[in-house]
Amino acid sequence: MNVSKKAYLHFPKEMTDKPFISTLSRDFDLSVNIFRAMVTPGQGGYLSIEVSGEESNVERSFEYLKTHLVEIHVGDVGLMWNEETCTHCTNCTVHCPPGALHVADWKTRRVSFDESKCIECLACLSHCPYGVCSSIY
Ligand code: SF4
Ligand code: SF4
User: Fold this and answer.
1) Residues 6 or more apart from 24 whose CB is under 8 A from it?
2) What is the mean pLDDT of each run of 10 residues along the chain (137 residues)?
3) Measured from the CA of 92, which atom of ligand 1 is nearest?
4) Which of 54, 74, 94 is the last residue of a domain?
5) Probe ligand 1: pick from 49, 96, 113, max atoms within 8 Å of CB?
6) Are residues 60 and 95 in the same domain?
7) Whether 6 and 70 share a structural domain
């Protein structure tokens, strides 16, 4: 059975020179969609990805990554939106590619967060003047 799973990978500094993405593709026959990446050689980093392929290959690939000290959070949405502190200024909505942050009702201009659409690109972090959005990682 084919599945798609979102995952957040955190790389320790010792592993930043390893070609993990090409390995997932080549050795586990997976398609990898990268939403966000920041890896600094020798310092560590992270990737927000979605992997698609045969379920057993996806699971085996995660085990492979863990044996190489990669910390994995599967299926978690790493974005926190604090509705209580949101001023509904709508600034983030034009910077949210999939529309996870959106104006739910144009009469009230209230902003809502649809977690199921969030791809964890974290663009909203730098576009919210009030620090309403934060990453759990
Ligand atoms: S992390 Fe990206 S996709 Fe998720 S709400 Fe923020 S801007 Fe939208
Ligand atoms: S930019 Fe911040 S305050 Fe404005 S609507 Fe988005 S989350 Fe709310």
Assistant:
1) 30, 32, 51, 61
2) 88 85 94 87 86 95 92 78 94 95 93 89 92 81
3) 7
4) 74
5) 96
6) no
7) yes
Q: Residues near ligand 2 with C-beta < 6 Å?
A: 86-92, 101, 111, 128, 130, 132-133
Pocket test for ligand 2, best of 90, 132, 133, 134 (most atoms within 8 A of CB): 132
Are 67 and 20 in a shared domain? yes
Q: Do 68 and 88 belong to one domain?
A: no
Q: Whose CA is nearest to atom 1 of ligand 2?
A: 128
**C-alpha closest to that of 40 among 10, 66, 72:** 10
Task: Provide the CATH number for the domain around residue 17.
Answer: 3.30.70.260
Instruction: State which residues form the domain around 108.
Output: 79-135
